[in-house]
Amino acid sequence: MLFSRVILSALVMFLLSAIAQCRRVDCNSDCCSFVEGFPVRLKELRSAYREIQRFYESNDDLEPLLDENVKQNINSPYGCHVMNQILHFYLETILPSVLQKKHLHAKTPIDSIGNIFLDLKRDLVKCKTYFSCRTPFEFSSLKDSYEKMKEKGVNKAMGELDILFKYIEQYLASKRTMH
């Protein structure tokens, strides 16, 4: 399963990279610039996560938290609200829990991820018209699943950051073709 995840991730990155190189977009708004410039931020997210990924994946033996339902909702007309709620969840619940537990890694990668998530959340809210946001999806099921996992929930949520990065990337890439 890990091998197929790596292959799929590499394929997605290759395709998005090829699309980005073939198409130059002249942006007329901050929101367009945010979407077009996000691949650089995504690279920063992945780089910070690589520093801590092994620790969290090795402590994750639970069912997926960021499941297919979350992916479908991110790719739906409610995507910007879904992204906003998930980013809020990570910023208010997951990342503070990680910092409190003082795991075996440096604080710096968590701070980097948190700062980029804060910027992303701010820009999503600022650009909700650009993203054509519609009524939000039901976020409580994700939060309920997390709470049922108890203390292992933090490891699960952190172990799935790479999945969240892919969902964010796919969502923002889908907006590149619309505007």
TrEMBL record:
Keywords for this protein: Cytokine, Disulfide bond, Secreted, Signal
Signal peptide: 1-22
InterPro entries: 4_helix_cytokine-like_core, IL-10, IL-10/19/20/24/26
Subcellular location: Secreted
Gene Ontology BP term (one): immune response
UniProt superkingdom: Eukaryota
Family note: Belongs to the IL-10 family.
Subunit-level organization: Homodimer. Interacts with IL10RA and IL10RB.
Role summary: Immune regulatory cytokine.
Protein name according to UniProt: Interleukin family protein
Species, as recorded: Danionella cerebrum
Source organism phylogeny: Eukaryota, Metazoa, Chordata, Craniata, Vertebrata
